[in-house]
Specification:
Number of helices: 7
Strand content: under 5%
Structural class: mainly alpha
Helix content: over 70%
Distance between the termini: 29 Å
Order of helices and strands: HHHHHHH
Radius of gyration: 44 Å
Number of strands: 0
Low-confidence stretches: none
Shape: rod-shaped
Length: 340
């Protein structure tokens, strides 16, 4: 039996086939869109995990920068491992080339951030180690100075009953005063550095105070040497030479600490920038995925409306054709009966 579209029967069959094909197409499109949405939702989930890991890493980094606690580094390494796993999982599960491109940007920015923190971490650890050495050096200096003062006090007690010692007592009193002032200025020098590291963060104030203290220390040092020439005590001279032996290393340690601190101060802005950029890049994927899903939802809703409208039109046409077919058949039967 030939299929003729011109016949009512052919039109009914064609419209039925067209309706079935439309339903299959809509079902396939919805299924395809659902698959894409599921993939994007998975990509969004992976990206949120990455952004979350980066956020936690930033918190630990700032804690370490403020406290210098090495225990935080073990937590930092664990978070880095978690981030590496999140990135690896994302690369394996994401098939979309555009999302992969965004993910590569996240990886690049995170590496830049990690490199900046590594430099800052080394500076922090260096500052802590050198600060301990500096404090030890200053304590050694103070110990030598205290030895000088103790010796002078003991010598005064042992000689104060002798005649003709007035001149020496005045000289020794002057030396004691100069040694005390020298020690006080050294204490102030340490406090100046600690204030810079822990409180003020004011480079200009630190340098001005240090310059003033070095001048005053130089004056007191010259005065001590001059009085020692008068007293001519081998023991006091040896203690003073011991004090001076710590000065070059003390100066070097303070300069290194200041250099590392200044380097970190300059790197801190870059640390903030790279952290913010890497976190934003991770969230950009999340936002892009959300926009894609919203767009697909709109398309699916539109297709559903078209499908419903098409079904209504299809039903109306099918009803019309069936009605015409029935009417034609009835007319033919009635005409046949009349002729009979």
């Amino acid at each position: 039996m030939m299929f003729r579209l011109s016949t009512i029967r052919g039109k009914v069959i064609f419209l039925s086939a067209l309706g079935i094909a439309g339903m299959i197409a809509v079902t396939w499109i919805n299924s395809y869109m659902g698959t894409l949405t599921a993939r994007d939702m998975e990509a969004g989930k992976r990206s949120r995990n990455i952004a979350h890991d980066i956020s936690k890493i930033m918190m630990v980094e700032y804690k370490f920068m403020n406290a210098g606690n090495s225990d935080l580094l073990s937590e930092y390494e664990k978070l880095q491992e978690s981030l590496a796993k999140s990135i690896s999982d994302a690369r394996l599960s994401i098939a979309d080339d555009l999302i992969k491109k965004y993910l590569d940007e996240v990886i690049r920015l995170e590496k830049d951030h990690r490199d900046v923190f590594r430099s800052m971490k080394e500076n922090v650890l260096s500052i802590r180690s050198r600060k301990e050495s500096l404090i030890l050096n200053i304590n050694n200096i103070k110990q030598s100075l205290a030895g000088m003062i103790t010796f002078l006090q003991n010598e005064k007690v042992s000689t104060e009953m002798l005649a003709g010692v007035g001149e020496f007592d005045a000289t020794r009193a002057a030396l004691t005063e100069e040694v005390n002032r020298y020690e006080n200025h050294f204490n102030e020098r340490l406090l100046n550095l600690l204030r810079l590291l822990l409180i003020s963060q004011e480079t200009e104030r630190y340098e001005e105070t240090k310059s003033r203290l070095l001048k005053e220390l130089s004056v007191h040092s010259d005065n001590v040497k001059m009085v020692l020439e008068v007293i001519r005590s081998d023991h006091l001279y040896d203690l003073w030479k011991k004090t001076e032996s710590y000065l070059p290393e003390t100066e070097q340690l303070e300069a290194s600490i200041f250099s590392d601190w200044k380097s970190n101060k300059e790197l801190f802005a870059k640390l903030d920038e790279t952290a913010s950029n890497s976190e934003k890049a991770g969230l950009n994927i999340v936002n892009m995925v959300r926009q894609r899903i919203e767009k697909r939802d709109r398309i699916i809703r539109l297709l559903s409306m078209v499908a419903v409208g098409g079904a209504v039109v299809f039903s109306a046409l099918l009803t019309l054709l069936i009605s015409r077919a029935i009417n034609s058949t009835l007319k033919a039967v009635i005409s046949g009966l009349i002729r009979a």
